């Protein structure tokens, strides 16, 4: 999915200086962003004062939207580099096309994982015949230096491992949780899990104390470590936890995001993650000139143009903790 903000501003990400070394309870409010035709998203990352959670660098939550009489999601072809996109649905379908020739419909609780590597372009749209409701999350994972220029590829996984306890079921989307590992390819120590929590249930989820974590609320009402979380909000939890108390006020859907703190300093602009402003400028030039990122075939419409670069230099920043 694309960042369609025409007034795109650079985000300085990474570096352990942004990491909270001990457990905290920091509730993040979303920023509302219009995405394509008729889809509004709630953007949780990057957020004011909180740029990343592990290697997770971008989080949008959207829906549930009634699109019975609407075209639904319509995101034209656009480029990516230096990251992975994770498509996750609770309701509806999204048709993915990319410059590799991939054509795949992603459905609820299926993993659509696109690794951009050095360069890729793709589009996302609701199929012409689609379900009434559209509800999901789109996330980016920053690729580390050793893998950020690999060949692009797309994976689609329908059979994901599940971890269960009384009152809670967790589907492992990416990485590992409680010994269960996703088949999706990860390039840093990471975890992403979709949790269904029953109303009235109380559970304790095992965590890795070396990871930092956050929980995104998708639906219903829940308490995470005693903090009420409502749909469209995210609770940042810091590091140093061995378990996470959960309580369902009602039936609730949550996403656990975590990982080893990402030490490299990054620049994120529009749909690019890089290490310098010069790399961003070159990527934008390549996209506008129609080179490097390939062509998405079959999408009915024009591709996106890149926003203008800011007048001030783009520089990665951060500090070592």
What does it look like?
By secondary structure, this protein is mostly beta strands. The chain has one domain (11-259): Jelly Rolls. Helices cover 4% and strands 48% of the residues. It contains 1 helix and 26 strands. It has one helix spanning 277-289, and strands at 11-14, 23-28, 31-35, 39-45, 56-66, 74-80, 83-91, 94-98, 103-106, 111-115, 120-125, 133-142, 153-157, 162-165, 168-177, 180-181, 190-197, 202-206, 212-219, 222-224, 227-229, 234-238, 243-248, 252-259, 265-269, 272-274. The strands form 5 sheets. Strands 2, 14, 15, 16, 17, 19, 22 and 24 form an 8-stranded antiparallel β-sheet that branches. It has a 7-stranded antiparallel β-sheet with strand order 3-4-5-12-7-10-13, with no helix packed on it. Strands 6-11-8-9 form a 4-stranded antiparallel β-sheet, with no helix packed on it. Strand 3 (31-35) and strand 4 form a beta hairpin. The radius of gyration is 19 Å and the shape is globular. The model has no long low-confidence stretch (mean pLDDT 92).
């Amino acid at each position: 999915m694309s960042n369609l903000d025409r007034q795109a501003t650079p985000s300085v990400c990474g570096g352990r200086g942004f990491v909270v070394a001990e457990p905290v309870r920091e509730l993040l409010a979303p920023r509302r962003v219009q995405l394509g035709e008729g889809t509004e998203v709630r953007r949780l990352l990057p957020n004011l004062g909180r740029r990343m959670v592990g290697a997770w660098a971008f989080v949008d939550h959207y829906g549930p939207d009634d699109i019975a009489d609407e075209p639904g999601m319509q995101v034209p072809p656009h480029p990516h580099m230096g990251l992975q996109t994770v498509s996750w649905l609770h309701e509806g379908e999204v048709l993915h096309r990319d410059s590799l020739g991939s054509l795949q419909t992603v459905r609820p609780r299926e993993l659509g994982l696109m690794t951009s590597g050095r360069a890729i372009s793709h589009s996302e749209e609701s199929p012409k015949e689609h379900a009434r409701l559209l509800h999901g999350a789109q996330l980016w994972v920053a690729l580390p230096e050793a893998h950020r220029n690999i060949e692009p590829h797309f994976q689609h996984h329908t059979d994901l491992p599940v971890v269960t306890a009384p009152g809670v079921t967790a589907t492992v989307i990416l990485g590992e949780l409680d010994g269960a590992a996703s088949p999706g390819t990860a390039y840093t120590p990471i975890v992403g899990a979709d949790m269904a929590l029953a109303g009235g249930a109380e559970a304790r989820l095992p965590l890795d104390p070396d990871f930092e974590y956050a929980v995104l609320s998708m639906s219903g009402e829940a308490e995470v470590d005693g903090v009420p979380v409502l749909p469209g909000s995210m609770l940042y939890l810091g590091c140093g936890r061995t378990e996470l108390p959960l309580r369902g006020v009602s039936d609730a859907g949550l996403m656990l995001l975590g990982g080893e703190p990402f030490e490299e300093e990054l620049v994120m602009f529009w749909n690019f993650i890089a290490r310098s402003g010069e790399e961003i400028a070159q990527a934008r030039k390549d996209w506008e000139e129609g080179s490097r990122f390939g062509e998405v075939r079959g999408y009915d419409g024009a591709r996106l143009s890149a926003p203008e670069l800011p007048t001030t230099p783009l520089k990665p920043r951060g500090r070592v903790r």
